[in-house]
Design goal:
About 30% of the residues lie in helices and about 25% in strands. The chain has 5 helices and 9 strands.
Length: about 160
């Protein structure tokens, strides 16, 4: 029963991520002005991730809470929510030139357990990128169960 509840909660979380629409520009601007200049000045941080294949992949983080959590993982401060989830963008990023896709930095989060439909290895996603967004990685949500942040890397 516990596994059923965990899977249901994971499905709900991934569904919310997959179907969340971007807020209107005016709402985003208003929220940013309320949050103040401190949050607007957060510089992106880059982390090397690996999976069971030992392939490396660079993840860009732009939200202060995600950056802090990633640094805590890398420094051994926490072991909670060690895996990466987010929407992929089907084009290369300058900071991740080895791969034809990257995470949308605005969607990157961390998790303990997720549903199977978003799980794959980095090389498998690369090899099947044309299929992503359909039955394979619905909504382009990618959650490699074996993902691990290895280290923080310098900005490109």
């Amino acid at each position: 029963m516990r596994h059923l509840v965990t899977k249901a909660a994971s499905l709900a979380a991934v569904a919310m991520l997959a179907f969340t629409a971007a807020p209107p520009a005016q709402a985003t601007q208003a929220a940013q002005s309320r949050e103040g200049a401190r949050d607007a000045a957060v510089a992106p941080a880059y982390f090397e991730m690996t999976d069971i294949t030992r392939s490396t992949f660079i993840v860009q983080l732009v939200e202060e809470r995600a950056i802090r959590h990633a640094r805590d993982l890398v420094n051994g401060v926490t072991t909670e929510q060690p895996h990466v989830v987010g929407r992929i963008v089907k084009r290369p990023a300058a900071y991740n030139p080895r791969w034809s896709f990257h995470y949308d930095p605005q969607t990157v989060q961390f998790f303990d357990v997720a549903i199977e439909v978003c799980d794959a290895t980095v090389p498998y996603v690369e090899d099947h990128l044309d299929e992503a967004g359909g039955a394979f990685l619905p909504g382009n949500v990618f959650c490699p169960w074996t993902s691990t942040l290895v280290k923080e890397v310098p900005a490109p």
